[in-house]
Amino acid sequence: MSSASSSSPPLQHRHAPRIPSPRALGPLPHGSPRGASDDRAAAPDRRIRPVRAPDHPDGAARPDLPERVAATYGAEDLSTVTAFTGGFINFGYWAWLPELAGRPLTEEDRLRSEQDLYRLVLDTVDRPRDRTALEVGCGRGLGCALALREFDFGAVIGLDAHPDQIARALEANAGLLSADPRRLEFVLGPAQRMPLADACTDVVYSVEAAQHFRDLAGFAREAVRVLRPGGQFALATFLARVPEAVRVLPELLPPYANGLDVTHLVDDVAAALDGAGLVDVAVTPIGDGVWEPYDRYMAERPELRDKWPRQYLTAYQTGLLDYYLITAAAPAG
Fold first, then answer.
1. Inter-CA distances, 28 with 25, 31, 32, 151, 282, Å
2. Which of 28, 35, 257, 304 lies most in the core, judged by the most C-beta atoms within 10 Å?
3. Based on the structure, what is the number of domains in the chain?
């Protein structure tokens, strides 16, 4: 690992062991969430009503949204791309892949991998039924719905900087919003300036969104601000391993060249979280459950096998980047 900066010693964050698989490799049985209490009616209502960002009726991106991010999640709608079938827009976590040896991977397998990445992240936090969770970079809100359905939080807030994504989240989750509006809300706003009240949530999590954030230090400070004392933080995304990646990744992968993604060093991310006041920062590499299986899925499809996303495996194998699960906590008080 590289140092957090050229003028300071390496951050002594804890490197957790590699994780072989998410809990049970499947959804939690309905009605029996782990760690949940038995009486929802008796649980205190800790729901907050966040300040809403201004509406954008014309669907235009926020002024501070980078042009390539605005286009990718706006008119182009990355969720419709075959490589991200299912609408979750992540590379997936495929630790169960050996059980599929001998047969081609299906779109159902791809969807399961995307869901399992969420399960891996959400498995790191406690889930009493009165707790609120905030997803930063929620996209179409499918991960928020999974968090409610399988992990039974008291409420989930989905935050995204793109108005088109918020509109899609409202549409995709219309049934859930109608059935239980107190438990789910979608809010327009950037990660570094969340339009939310102080100490409004018990959990902040983000799944494959932080690679777009220009101001990671601002995101970290905001996470500390909105978390209640002792609250939990979990992030999963792909990050650069070495300083050389800042130069090489834009030559290898178009998203780094065109401004969609930012070449964040993993040590810099951990340092930003630590510097913002989060404690117990732990970094876990999980790329062995991401890149090779995802590449296999791409290689088995004629329409995908020659596409640039297959270069992520090259970047991983040459030590330029990895996929990480990073956890931390807010100070107890």
1. 9, 9, 7, 7, 25
2. 28
3. 1
